[in-house]
Amino acid sequence: MSECADKFGVTDHDYRTALTSGNVDAIDPCFWSCCFKGTGVFNAEGLYDLEATLPFIKTTFHDDNYKQVQKIATLCEKGKRKLIID
C-alpha cells in the first residue's frame, strides 16, 4: 500500500481521514485501485475476487471488525454477480 501511496501522493493522514470519515472521494480513485489490485481484492482483470479477499481481511482485521468486513465482502460478491447477470 505504501507503494500506491507514494505513486499517487496519498499521505497517511489523507488515508486515515478518508477511512474514519467514510468519505474516500478526496483520494485519487487510482490509489484505491492500486491498493485493491496489490492486496488481491481485485484480480488482474480488475474484477472483485472474494476468494482472494477473505484471507487478506482475515490477516488485517480481528474479532468484530473481521466479522463486519467479512459480511461486507460477501455482499460485494453478491453485488458483482447481480451486475454480471444483469
Layout of strands and helices, then pairs:
Layout: H1 2-8, H2 12-21, H3 29-39, H4 50-60, H5 63-85
Brief synopsis:
By secondary structure, the chain is mainly alpha-helical. It has five helices and no strands.
What overall form do the CA principal axes indicate? globular
Query: CA-to-CA gap between the ends?
Result: 33 Å
Helix content: over 70%
Please mark out the parts with pLDDT under 50 across 5 or more consecutive residues, or reply none: none
How many helices? 5
String of helices and strands? HHHHH
Q: Using only CA atoms, what is the Rg?
A: 14 Å
Strand residues, percent? under 5%
Mean pLDDT equals 84
- Total domain modules: 2
Beta strand count: 0
Which structural class should the secondary elements be placed in? mainly alpha
Largest sheet: none
List the main descriptive attributes of the protein structure presented here.
86 residues; mainly alpha
What does this structure look like?
The mean pLDDT is 84. By secondary structure, the chain is mainly alpha-helical. It has helices at residues 2-8, 12-21, 29-39, 50-60, 63-85. It folds into two domains: 1-39, no CATH class; 44-86. Helix 1 packs antiparallel against helix 3 and helix 4 runs antiparallel to helix 5. It is 72% helix and 0% strand. The protein contains five helices and no strands.
